[in-house]
Automatic annotation (TrEMBL):
GO terms for biological process: polyketide metabolic process. InterPro entries: Cyclase_SnoaL-like, NTF2-like_dom_sf. This is SnoaL-like polyketide cyclase. Gene3D superfamilies: 3.10.450.50. Pfam families: SnoaL (PF07366). It comes from Rhodococcus maanshanensis. It comes from the Bacteria.
């Protein structure tokens, strides 16, 4: 491989990795530096409505949404592969469930509410990031949401936790009308 081709791939890999690591610990200015103003995150369909906008605001809003319920949020980078403007990043996402986690339906209404369990999780994810002119322009992900839900006790919940989930969902819907 010639050096002209390897340098852009190295830069693209670095940008893609930072876009993921910033979710755990980056500020708005970090996202502004690497996310294109018209960038599209294809993974916001179950996130709060304010994450479903183009550009750095979406990535920053997603980061804040995930940091609230998950302490010690971390993305361990496993593998990074680039082919032209597309970068694949394999990670293990981990954290501890310490706050209320909400997910949303397409209309923006609360679809699920998961009160804190105090449990830790570690799940595999693959992120696909397209880079344009040195900035992230698109993002897709494949996540082990089922594995995370099982580790956190959200699936096969005890009757007591199921009751807590239902009450939390009711309170969240009242607090966040569509």
């Amino acid at each position: 491989m010639n050096s002209d081709r390897s340098t852009p791939s190295a830069d693209a890999k670095s940008i893609a990795v930072r876009s993921i690591e910033f979710v755990a610990a980056g500020g708005r200015e970090d996202f502004d530096a690497i996310i294109h103003p018209e960038a599209l995150n294809h993974e916001t369909k179950t996130e709060p409505p304010h994450t479903r906008v183009p550009g750095p605001a979406s990535w920053h809003a997603t980061a804040l949404w995930l940091r609230q319920p998950f302490a010690d949020l971390h993305f361990e980078i496993r593998n990074v592969v680039a082919d032209g403007d597309l970068v694949a990043v394999e990670v293990t996402m981990s954290g501890r469930h310490v706050g209320l986690f909400l997910n949303f339906d397409e209309s923006g209404a609360v679809a699920g509410a998961f009160p804190p369990t105090g449990r830790s999780f570690a799940v595999a994810q693959s992120h696909w990031v397209r880079i344009e002119n040195g900035l992230v322009i698109e993002h897709w992900a494949t996540r082990d949401d089922l594995g995370m839900a099982e580790q956190l006790g959200w699936l096969e919940p005890s009757p007591a936790y199921l009751t807590r989930m239902l009450w939390a969902k009711r309170r969240a819907r009242k607090a966040r009308p569509v």
